[in-house]
Amino acid sequence: MNRRQTIFRKPNSAALAWLLAGAVWFAMGTTWGLFSAAHLIAPELFDNISWLVFGRTRPVHVNTVIFGFVAPMLIGAALHYVPALLKTRLWSEPLGWLAWLAWNAAVASGFILLPLGITQGREYAEYIFPFDVCIMVALVLLIVNLVMTIATRREPLLYVSVWYVVGMAVWTAGVYPIGNVMWQPATGAMPGVLDSIFLWFYGHNLVGLLLTPLATAAAYFVVPRVTRTPLYSHTLSLVGFWILLTLYTHIGAHHLLQAPVPNWLKTLSVVDSMAMMLPVFTVLMNLWLTARGRGGRLWRDVGGRFVMFGLILYFVTCVQGPLQSLPSVQRVTHFTNWTIGHAHIAVLGFAGFIALGAMWHTLPGILGRRLFSTRLVSVQFGLLMTGVVGFFLVLSIAGLVQGTNWANGNVEYNTLPMMPPYMILRGAMGLLIVTAAWVGLYNCVKTIRRKERATELATKPVANSQ
Amino acid sequence: MKMTPAFLILGGLLIFWTSTFIAVILPAMTLGDEPSAIWRPREADEARGAQLYIDNGCSYCHSQFGRTFDWGLGRQRVAEQGDYYAMQPVILGTERWGPDLQQAGGEHPDGWHHAHFLNPRNTRPLSLMPSWEFLGEKNIEALTRYVQSNWGTLADERMARQRHWETQFVAAYESGADANVAFLHANVPPTWRAMPNPYPADEAALQRGQLIYQWYCIACHGEVGDGKGRGGLATFRGRPAIYPPPMNFTTLRRNLIEDKYIGGIFYYQIMNGITGTAMPYFKHELTSEKIWDVSNYIAVRFVGYTDAGLEPRGIEASYESAGDDGENKP
């Protein structure tokens, strides 16, 4: 009993638990993604195996990578660097663990219930009501913990990373119950077309107000540390932060441009989608100018390299995203694999890469020992970079093939014979991604189990630099 | 500007809730809620099917709204807000691997759906849809009822027409092979009955026809055109799922119109389908030449005769060489 208490009270133990959960769910979630991709190559590969049918593996994949991999890994890093930036300790480690338990219960429920066909069916909002409550409990506990950590801080200034992490928690605590229509526990939905407006407000803000702030916060933390330069501009940080919040919150309706929803909502979403380039470029410019002349340091650092590449893909995502919100572009891209490619560079390429970078960057500091293998981190990076870029290119091309055909009267069925080369390549790229996830998990576990005296590292000022 | 904790949290909440008010609360207050002209409530088994549709993630590959520029299923009418009246949830879909299903009710008879749900390759050889046999026949029937109700009252009209013709085609089928063909031919407009295939049945055309046959026809009509493809053999509730069964082309040799015409009939049946039977229309999917080519393929390979190049015929198209009629020896 005594020993257990020490585990849950040990400094940084909650952060480590969140990071490890992220690494585990990354491996599991992408594996289920590969199962889904296999269906699109050979639809009878898992013939009549109920829990592996495409309609059930896809939501397992999507929910696990968002709620299991990217968000927890970034939260884990934040639970380490937020107290560090405030020159204090996390207010309550047990509270961090409790939030971890509630959050991961929801992710695990997805792995068990969605394959059984127990789901609310709305994309990204599939978890049933009791587990929506779990997510909300976790968010509230995180807010309390963050606010109290700030209240007990010894550093008067709040660094920009802290803003984003706190913002993520308080905004997601609003987005989640609205999007999941938690006051309607049975269906988790609104009646009529209004339901789609709620759903896409939610779906888009999962990326916009959950993953993006967390990833931006991690990048703001990792980049100056690795390049050993102060942040370029406080003003640009402010501008990027407040404009992101103002614009991102109402662009979800660009998922519904071709659906029967009010035109003013569509107009608003398209205009503000284009305007999203402002906060994104502000943040990128701020980080770019911070690292100016020191890109080599980022590239040579195992964690910095992931963050650097994540920021490049953030740029790609956020040029592509606004452009594909234009109605004339969507006439071709909507409903096609183009959109799936976009989702993958946003969640895996941008937020996922930064999450991994933040994990490899913070893990030595959290554990007080070096990584098990920096070479394996590089292997993971190479596999993942090839996988996600290849995946994005293949699906973008496949999407254009589908979309231009459909626009010219070749219906969905007629484009099926054109798809096998793309779907096989997609599976191959997926295999690289899955391998990278398992390599990362192995490295993470080996690092945690590694027997190295903490003192060995204590003498080294920057734990992660090679 | 200094970011204090209070400024961060209160300012963040103020902007977030203002934006949220615009994005969801304002639409919730102003959207209104009226059923459209085609809306009707779902019956119990249709609602159960709708739940199965949600539970099994059908919405990840099928959308549920017709757009102004669609060409396939869903093009008859652009979706309206009122079509979704009282539905909860409304999952419009984000990706299309299969057709839009908002207007799918009555497109096919129930038997086609039963065979298709058991294994989609039973009716659509290229389909990527998973087999749903594991759901059991009761659930497949519920899913069928749901799909057949999509499009509200207009789907009901189509279903009434499907049932009307199904009775007649079943009766015709049970009255014997020749009487069945006679009935089928009698329901093709006269101009099509006396029309030869205007495309030459040369080797290249037959190869194209074979490809079309493999992509669209082989599941039901089978490798040798005898109607014993996997779809033709599929059973549902102990009976053939598709009934009347798919046409056995090899018996048609003795049923030519005026002892020589068959091409126009093939074309018409492929283009328009045979409502009341599992034979779908292909007018959305196949262009003119593809239909004529597959008609020639069926004629040459399975009937052993094609009327390609017979009179009446006009001037040859510029690319055709004179007398290039391929295998048209009766």
Just name the CATH architecture of the domain at 175-303 in chain B: Orthogonal Bundle
- Main pleated-sheet profile of chain A: none
Contiguous helical run count of chain A: 18
Helix content of chain A: over 70%
Our estimate of the beta-strand percent of chain A is: under 5%
Q: Rg of chain A to the nearest angstrom?
A: 21 Å
Largest sheet of chain B: 2 strands, antiparallel
Percent of sequence in beta strands of chain B: under 5%
CATH topology of the domain at 175-303 in chain B: Cytochrome Bc1 Complex, Chain D, domain 2
Strand order of the largest sheet of chain B: 1-2
The CATH level-2 architecture of chain A is identified as Up-down Bundle
Name the average pLDDT of chain B: 94
How many independent structural domains of chain A?
1
Q: Low-confidence parts of chain B lasting 5 or more residues at pLDDT below 50?
A: none
Average predicted confidence as pLDDT of chain A: 94
Q: List the total number of helices of chain B.
A: 11
Largest interface: A-B, 85 and 78 residues
The level-1 CATH class of the domain at 175-303 in chain B: Mainly Alpha
Short description:
By secondary structure, chain A is mainly alpha-helical.
Structure description:
The complex is a heterodimer of chains A (466) and B (330). Chain A has 466 residues and is an all-alpha fold. Chain A has one domain (2-457): Cytochrome c oxidase-like, subunit I domain (Cytochrome C Oxidase, Chain A, Up-down Bundle), CATH 1.20.210. Chain A has 18 helices and no strands. Chain A has helices at residues 2-9, 13-39, 54-85, 93-113, 129-151, 160-179, 194-227, 234-248, 263-275, 277-290, 295-300, 302-324, 327-333, 337-367, 374-407, 412-415, 420-449, 454-458. In chain B, 44% of the residues lie in helices and 1% in strands. Chain B contains 11 helices and 2 strands; from the N terminus they run αααααααααββαα. In chain B, a hairpin with a 2-residue loop joins β1 and β2 (239-240). The model of chain B has no long low-confidence stretch (mean pLDDT 94). Chains A and B meet through α3, α5, α6, α7 and α8 of A and α1 of B.
